[in-house]
């Protein structure tokens, strides 16, 4: 009896320790967003004070009004929403098709082509700026959102992620049975693979949407007119070389982060499901 009580106490102590670590991790994760909100709601003098303000002030609306007076905030948000949404949709379709082909089809040079695909993930994207910009100028896409959308619709990581997920979760026997019934390859993909890989879609959608929303370098190169700016390029214009209003800057940054939080909350359950798929086997 005493041994059972001792084991129960050790188990409860270990659980409390795990919960404590999770609580600390949650606080550390949420604190940057809270700190950004505090700075967005305070005057510049309160932010630069020693010690700085740790409680939200009353300047949130005024700071955001200053943002609106300096940049076309909602126009830039709309451009970013178009770019991130269309690119993400394209990546989900094209990468899942390519991943399905790599996972379930047999064709000459498949392994070599897949290795080449993995090698491209090791190449820094900055090395492709010049040839990519040359192609965009030849297509006359400068200052056009197509210059960001089209190159972003194929993603090597997306193909790799879909290939690995389909290989693990779509049985070959099910595909063979569908072929015997006379299903085409696309129908097998659409009716058999797609319903299974929805959690993988959610994970890839979150990753790609966040990447495109936060992308700065390539939009900075190809977008030069204010009407075509994405939100990250527009926020850069809030920085003055002489007087820096941190409250205004962080106000714009805070509201530009809200869509990302909403997207993550919408797909949070499927995101966790895709990461834990296969961790527990029956």
Automatic annotation (TrEMBL):
It is a multi-pass membrane protein. It comes from Sediminibacillus halophilus. The keyword DNA-binding does not apply. It comes from the Bacteria. Gene3D superfamilies: MetI-like. It is found in: Cell membrane. Keywords: Cell membrane, Membrane, Transmembrane, Transmembrane helix, Transport. The chain crosses the membrane at residues 16-37, 76-100, 112-136, 148-167, 188-211, 248-267. Residues 77-267 form the ABC transmembrane type-1 domain. Signal peptide: none annotated. This is Cellobiose transport system permease protein. InterPro entries: MetI-like, MetI-like_sf. One of its GO terms (biological process) is transmembrane transport.
């Amino acid at each position: 009896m005493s041994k059972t009580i001792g084991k129960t106490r050790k188990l409860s102590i270990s659980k409390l320790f795990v919960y404590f670590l999770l609580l600390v991790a949650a606080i550390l994760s949420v604190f940057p967003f809270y700190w950004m909100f505090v700075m967005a709601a305070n005057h510049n003098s309160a932010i630069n004070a020693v010690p700085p303000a740790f409680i939200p002030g009353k300047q949130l609306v005024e700071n955001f009004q200053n943002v609106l007076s300096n940049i076309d905030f909602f126009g830039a948000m709309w451009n970013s929403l178009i770019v991130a949404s269309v690119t993400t949709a394209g990546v989900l379709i094209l990468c899942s098709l390519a991943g399905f082909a790599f996972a379930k089809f047999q064709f000459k040079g498949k392994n070599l082509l897949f290795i080449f695909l993995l090698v491209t993930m090791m190449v820094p994207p900055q090395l492709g700026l010049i040839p990519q910009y040359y192609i965009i100028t030849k297509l006359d896409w400068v200052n056009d959102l197509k210059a960001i959308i089209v190159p972003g619709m194929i993603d090597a990581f997306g193909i790799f992620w879909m290939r690995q997920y389909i290989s693990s979760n779509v049985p070959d026997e099910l595909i063979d049975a569908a072929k015997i019934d006379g299903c085409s390859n696309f129908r097998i993909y659409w009716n058999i693979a797609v319903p299974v890989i929805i959690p993988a879609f959610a994970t890839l959608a979150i990753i790609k949407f966040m990447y495109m929303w936060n992308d700065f370098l390539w939009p900075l190169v190809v977008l030069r007119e204010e009407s075509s700016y994405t939100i990250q390029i527009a926020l850069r214009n809030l920085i003055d070389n002489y007087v820096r209003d941190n409250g205004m800057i962080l106000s714009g940054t805070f509201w530009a982060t809200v869509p990302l939080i909403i997207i993550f909350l919408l797909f949070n359950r499927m995101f966790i499901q895709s990461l834990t798929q296969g961790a527990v086997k029956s």
